[in-house]
Amino acid sequence: MPRSQRSQRSPRSQGSQTCQGIVPALVGLAVLIAALAGGSVAYAQSADDIAAGRQLFLQKGNCQACHGWAGDGRKMDDQMPDGANLREIPLDRQVFIMTVKCGRPGTGMPAFDRLAYSDGRCFGLKQSDLRARGLEMPDPPATLAPNEVERLADFLFAKVVGKGPIDHAGCVEFWGSEVEVCKELKK
To answer: CA-to-CA distance for 48 and 157, rounded, in angstroms?
Structure first.
């Protein structure tokens, strides 16, 4: 717009143009805040779901082999890759579920979804894409059904994620009694 026409505009039309730029920015900010807040939505977990998730963590998924029985990254077997400390790392439930289903290509974290990388459901990639990038996926001890991944998340978010270092009381609660490993922890 030529300078002469700009100076002839009313203050009202200039303000309107300024608002046109601010409104989309505010809407974008509101969407961002809502998306970030959505990551911390509380999920109601039943005691049965938490117990089922614990069993998946310890047995079928064998998560404790890499992440340690307490989810603190202190594994008991040097043959397995080092897993993340789930007690200290800030995790979002949906990101966690995607990580369990799809693994982390190029790391020791396997994909527990039996169809991961078969159809682009995981990060838009297929097996051929992983091979082309030189990324390998370790085989999981077992695959998990979607409801099992949810139960695993129920357990971890109720008992492990963000709970800080395990202590004696947490150990006894986890195992249901005073087991040998709990004796090593501070009371």
So the answer is: 14
Rg (the chain; Cα; Å): 24
**In this structure, what token pair is assigned to residue 127?**
């097996």
pTM, entire model: 0.73
Dist. CA 146–CA 84, nearest whole Å: 22
**What are the contacts of 72-80 at 24+ separation with CB within 8 A?**
72/165, 72/166, 80/108
List Cβ neighbours of 83 (8 Å cut-off, separation of 6 or more).
63, 66, 67, 68, 73, 75, 108, 109
pLDDT in tens, 147-167: 999 999 999 999 999 999 999
Give the burial string for 96-133 (b: 16+ CB within 10 Å, else e). Answer: bbbbbbbbebeeebbbbbeebbeeeebeebeeeebeee
